[in-house]
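A favour, since you know our structure tokens better than I do. It will help me judge whether the discrete encoding reads sensibly. The space below this message is yours for that.
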Amino acid sequence: MVKYFDRRHQEISASRRRLLMACISFGLTLGLSICIVGFILGGWLDQRLDSAPWCRVAGALLAIAASFYRLYRDLLAAERQDEENDA
């Protein structure tokens, strides 16, 4: 029981920390961008253009694509940083 509370087991490596932060960032970016771009702005455009639900769908798809692109960029940056630290 004591070993579970040992300090050594609670330390997270720098590469794992960067991966964890990228995943958290992805989740927040995805959720907020779908809410803001997909539903709020898409709903507003649907009302203006009388095109329900197409602007909301397009906004949600755009938000999902942007979130995955952001995740890709974050993971590439983390990989580059790991390579620099290993060298």
The mean pLDDT is 85.
